[in-house]
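Encode chain A's predicted structure.
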Amino acid sequence: MMSVTMKKPKNVRQLVVEYWGSDAFRKLGSASQRDYYDCLTIIKDDEKLGSISLKRLNVPIMQRCYNVWLGRGIPRANKIASIMSILLNWAIKNEVEVFNPMRHLDKIPNPKRDITWEPEQVNKFIATAYSKWKWRSIGLIVQMAYEWGQRVGDMRMLMWTAIDFDKRRCDLVQSKRGAAVHLPIMSDELMFTLKQQHKAFGFQCLVTPQMKPKDGAWKPYSKETLYVHVNRVLDAAGLPMHLTAMDMRRSAITEMVEAGVPTPQIMTTTGHNSLNSLTPYIKNTFSGASGALAQRQAHKDAQDA
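Encoded structure for chain A:
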């Protein structure tokens, strides 16, 4: 609830600040807090939206804001709009005089994403990222997400305490569902890169911090900053710009499926607790269909023999 000792906010910027200090925000999980914070910062720092009086908020104003957010991509625009709605509902619950126009917006549905990277594309991206010091952490985030089949968010927030060089493993508690996963450092290339990264950044807690400290502290990449840098690496590598770092998890899962890895083992790696939660990551591929139909034909041939 809003503190009774604080004046009720007059504009959107003040409302965001009040929400950050609320019990509602504090009760969010760590991953949700980071996601909310990133989106609310975009809302707060918007010069026009941040300063607008709460009494003046209406559908046309928020529709224009949403159209601007679309420049960050449809999923991101919808996420910001959803969190803006949560913010306004919280304000209404706390008796702030404001109208929530978000449900009346003309929004574009999130596109179903089933894109996977080819191994050659992954290798080219990583090689390009490691070719420049400023992209070193970006390359490592992507490499770990791909080799371990993990979410990019967990890789950008990964701490050195999770890495055991002697046992060649990473013990991680995933931020989204709280699942504990225990991941081997399989490739010598990843082991080498992690050791080099530790030499450069082992004095602080983050495995993949931003390459320069900000305000005297080493900080992780935000979602927005990571998106920008990944696009720059894609452009430098001459790779398709529709690829995203988030596709690495799906790519890894697809490769495990095609390799015939049993579903329980895949779930142990990815942290999924049910087949239903894993299914959206599985993509229909020519290779997978070829393997399935080949097994079917071999079975029929054996019966006919």
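Residues 12-104 form a domain with the DNA polymerase; domain 1 fold (CATH 1.10.150).
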